[in-house]
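TICKET: design request
STATUS: open
ATTACHED STRUCTURE:
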């Protein structure tokens, strides 16, 4: 009975908010229903396609109600760049899963002073670890760490793909890229068959699957009282608690047996100790914040890079002529030696193909939504405080206004007339502005090294009688469907 009264109260409040906001001069958009807004117009399996239709119909700035949350879809890359450079648009959208479960901790869900402090720390760490654009001793060390996992992945792909049945590369790539991030984030790596490591991989994939930006639970929190959604929340919370317990054990082991390996965990712990020793307020540097931050760094670093690489390999198998051109480019540049970062400027076609895959299969197709920190405007339109602002990558990357034949795979669109890389203004794979991906350069390094060495040593194709499926499944990220490929040695 109490739950029913609570539901009625929430419904009444949301109705008042809905009617009140409707009097403002909001951006154009579809009419919605009270309480649920436009949620029924969104296909839960392909939310990016549903929202793209709305964006293309109503314009580059359009608004709709996602349940109780007023949402603005931005599909103009110039506006995305302009608005996301402002503090007003640097908040986080009031989503239940990020605010109710993540509690505003970490890097992805935090905002305000906590976010600024933590982002500054993370950025400094990454640069100190070697994540820089130009050659340096630290970058060389980081490259060596990456190449250890790259070579392991290539050897496993070749060895396990013998025979006509092929191999789904997902588990191998997840292990190798995941272990790379384990070293960077935790200063610890695992054997492939380690049970704890298998559990970590499983829980990460489950989280990505269930925490969808467009899921109704984000916008109608009272759904948590229903068994279906309540079970989902319980799964996420249990996984989060167990993960943090393991992080605490890793931290305790580090304190007992410190290593020389650079890691976020070690650097963060040193900062906590420094502040305590100097009598400074810990502020944002607490163990609770540490565990949420570690989860964000590991999850974001693995999932987006892993998914992009999986899409790249599928596109290479689906377009063998393009694969052959890239392999010829790599061979002409490196000969018999293995490609590395020094060769990157001389392999524009390879990087153009990666960029085209990022355009066609935006890993986070709806973008990571921002929130307005105060009442504001976009042009002549009113945008209330607490609105969700979506940098709509899918709609931008497939808009014929910015791309000719936008659904076609054409890496050459990223090749400039002088033969170098072109960087169109409508290409936003890492978003933009104050909250753009802090690890963008690390992701580029990982992608170019994995892609170059895999294609240098292996030829990719679908098994006989099969075709490559280039459709995906959408959670918080757009991931390829499980499928096998052949990886045959080119030597």
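STATUS: resolved
RESOLUTION: sequence designed for all positions
ATTACHED SEQUENCE:
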């Amino acid at each position: 009975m109490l739950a029913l009264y609570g539901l009625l109260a929430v419904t009444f409040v949301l109705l008042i908010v809905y009617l009140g906001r409707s009097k403002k001069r909001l951006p154009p958009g579809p009419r919605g229903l009270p309480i649920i807004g436009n949620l029924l117009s969104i296909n839960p399996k392909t939310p990016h396609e549903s929202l793209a239709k709305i964006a293309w119909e109503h314009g580059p700035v359009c608004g709709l109600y996602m349940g109780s949350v007023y949402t603005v879809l931005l599909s103009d890359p110039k506006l995305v760049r302009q608005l996301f450079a402002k503090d007003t648009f640097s908040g986080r959208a009031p989503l239940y899963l990020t605010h109710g479960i993540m509690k505003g901790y970490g890097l992805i869900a935090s905002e305000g002073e906590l976010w600024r402090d933590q982002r500054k720390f993370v950025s400094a760490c990454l640069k100190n670890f070697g994540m820089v654009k130009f050659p340096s001793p630290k970058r060389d060390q980081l490259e060596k760490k990456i190449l250890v996992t790259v070579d392991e992945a290539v050897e496993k792909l070749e060895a396990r793909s013998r025979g006509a049945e092929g191999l789904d590369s997902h588990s191998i790539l997840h292990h190798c890229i995941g272990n790379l991030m384990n070293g960077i984030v935790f200063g610890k790596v695992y054997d492939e068959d380690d049970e704890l490591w298998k559990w970590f991989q499983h829980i990460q994939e489950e989280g990505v699957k269930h925490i969808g930006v467009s899921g109704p639970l984000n916008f109608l929190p009272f759904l948590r009282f229903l068994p279906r959604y309540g079970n989902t929340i319980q799964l996420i919370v249990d996984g989060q608690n167990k993960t943090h317990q393991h992080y605490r054990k890793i931290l305790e082991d580090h304190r007992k047996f410190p290593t020389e390996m650079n890691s976020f965990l070690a650097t963060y712990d040193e900062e906590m100790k420094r502040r305590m020793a100097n009598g400074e307020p810990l502020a944002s540097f607490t163990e609770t914040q540490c565990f949420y931050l570690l989860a964000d760094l590991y999850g974001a670093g693995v999932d987006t890079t892993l998914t992009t690489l999986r899409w790249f390999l599928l596109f290479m198998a689906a377009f063998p002529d393009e694969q052959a051109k890239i392999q010829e480019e790599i061979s002409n540049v490196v000969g018999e030696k293995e490609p590395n970062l020094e060769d990157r400027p001389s392999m524009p076609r390879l990087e153009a193909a990666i960029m085209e895959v990022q355009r066609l299969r935006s890993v986070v197709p709806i973008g990571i939504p921002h929130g307005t920190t105060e009442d504001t405007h976009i042009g002549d339109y009113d945008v209330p405080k607490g609105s969700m602002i979506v940098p709509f990558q899918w709609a931008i990357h497939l808009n014929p206004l910015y791309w000719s034949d936008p659904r076609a795979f054409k890496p050459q669109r990223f090749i400039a007339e002088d033969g170098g890389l072109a960087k169109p203004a409508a290409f936003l794979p890492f978003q933009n502005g104050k909250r753009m991906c802090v690890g963008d350069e690390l992701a580029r390094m990982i992608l170019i090294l994995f892609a170059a060495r895999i294609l240098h040593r292996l030829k990719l194709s679908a098994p006989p009688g099969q075709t490559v499926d280039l459709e995906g499944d959408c959670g918080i990220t757009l991931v390829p469907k499980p499928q096998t490929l052949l990886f045959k040695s080119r030597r």
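CLOSING REMARK: Residues 1-22 have pLDDT under 50 and may be disordered. The chain has one domain: 90-366+403-489.
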